[in-house]
Amino acid sequence: MTESTRVETRIKDNSRHGVHAVPRKWSYHPHDESAINSLSGQLKVTPLVAQVLIARGYTTAEAAKSYLEPRLSDLYEPTLLPGVSEAAERIVAAHSDGRRITIYGDYDVDGVTSTAVLWHCLKLSNAKVDYYIPCRLEEGYGLNEAALRQLHEEDPERLLVSVDCGIASVHEAAVAREIGLELIITDHHTIGEQLPDAAVLVHPRLPGTDYPFGELCGVGVAFKLAWAICQLFGDGRKASPRMREFLKSAVGLTAIGTVADVVPLVDENRVIVRYGMHSLLENPSLGLQALLKVAGLHTKNQLTAEDAAFGIAPRINAAGRLGQARLAVEMLTTDNAERAVSLAAYVDELNNNRKTVERKILKEAKEQIEANPNWDSQPVLVLAHHEWHPGVIGIVASRIGETFEKPTVMISLKDDGTGQGSARSFAGFDMYAGLNACRDSLLGCGGHKAAAGLQIDGKRVEEFRTSLCNWANNNFAPTDDDTALRVDAEVHLSEVTRRAVMELQHLGPFGAANPKPRFAASRVNLAEAPKTMGEGNRHLSLKVQQHRTKLRAVAFGRGEWADEIAAVGGPLAISFAPQINSYRGYESVELQLHDWKSPETNASS
After folding, report:
1. Phi and psi angles of residue 396, each rounded to the nearest 5 degrees, phi first
2. Which residues is 419 bridged to in the sheet?
3. pLDDT digits (tens, 9 = 90+) for 537-575
4. What does the buried/exposed string (b/e) look like for 264-292 if buried means 16 or more CB atoms within 10 Å of the residue's CB?
5. 73-349: what fold?
6. Distance separating alpha carbons of residues 168 and 184, to the nearest angstrom
7. What is the DSSP code (8-state) at residue 514?
8. pTM across the whole model
9. 3-class secondary structure, 436
10. Which CATH superfamily is domain 3-30+488-604 in?
């Protein structure tokens, strides 16, 4: 088989699996050698770092320094956040009157950390505080009418404060007002056509307001509320020394939720995560200490956003996904060391169970797509199954969306005839707007542009699929630029030195809207045959060489590339993010492979 035939076969295979029938476009930032050298000299950084800064819009030394050295003082005053001052005043008044304050949290990482931050704040203030976390499997997302009635019946005087949910709970807020339950809603999700009639709404994007940064997640909003409460418990403007120390430590929990909710790591979010990663190691709670240990992160000198995303967050998330979110909150709030260790071990076990369930669902989802080739031409994938776990389908929807390069909705069908769905965006598709446009086919929905949830009558899945695809055909037209792999610079492998990679780490924390620097190198040869690794041979390992420079590269979840790359007769073009790999005390530069092209496809795209 010739190389051109191999490339054609690869393209056909990708097309059959719903992936674009042409190689993915690589989008390069223009190379301005004069500007690169100037910025490199002014900042005393390698040209590679200077080029990345310029590619991301930091073209002057002043702008670059501000980006490289964010300060906690860059966070906006909490009183600027819409609704936060009145909410803090009501909470402090309730505390002064001896009333119970109940935090109603969501069951994901954002909601769990939001609950823990506000709980710690009020507990330190000697408030009468507890929390309620709905069961994902039985109660679903958001405020629950039955829960509101039960909480009010148990204590008619209590103050209920939602975190990371409630902005779409118009009916439930009306119920709370009807029965006399004082309700404060704090949230960050997309606001619908009607606002809930709560006592106070705290949201960075409330209509008619102008908060400087609208991309806070739920725990970011909860942190600002805790900050405002601490100010009131102090002299009205400044928190007491004890509460200031609490706020510094709370940045760590806030960072975990911020990373997990995949909000843009820019502006306030970047400051929170940058300092939060340090805070997690400086003074972690008993629960966080135990969690870091089971995640194998307790010996690290410095944590990264990736540690939070792949080591800490999945374990907290697994508890909520499998119906045990309340235990995750207990782990983060307990003052019993033995209990903290026990709960950390349990959420670690739940996470391992979640991985097993996830692999099974992913396999079944791919088989369902294979069995429906007519879906190839549809702009959105809508999958449904009676045996899928509703707590895990969101993760799988993300994986399916990346693999097949389409927005994806996955629905778990229940025995009572209803379905619970999780939806994930791709290429800028506004998932919330799409679901909202199809409300007539749904029992309910909520979320934001990148991710959303829904409830549906199981008999109307096909109707919903047709409706959503019709809406997408009229409102969603992704271009090559929308799906392009953005490359900061084309380099020689000899430029990817340990010093350069260490300097690049200062551009972190990396995540949404601030991805790891990505480079491309052309005419790279294989130094060794590609190999698969990991359970089920899911991952790829290979060694590449360009002139005298040899480096190891890995591609997670891309084991199928091994045979394809091995079959290429000539050199490759590769796109990658460099990183430092530490193993038994030895550090080396390693490439995280994002994409590759043969000489022919590289020349044509």
Report:
1. -65, -35
2. 413, 456
3. 889 999 999 999 999 999 988 898 999 999 987 799 999
4. bbebbbbbbbbbbbebbbeebbbbbbbbb
5. inorganic pyrophosphatase (n-terminal core) (3.90.1640)
6. 13
7. B
8. 0.86
9. helix
10. Nucleic acid-binding proteins (2.40.50.140)
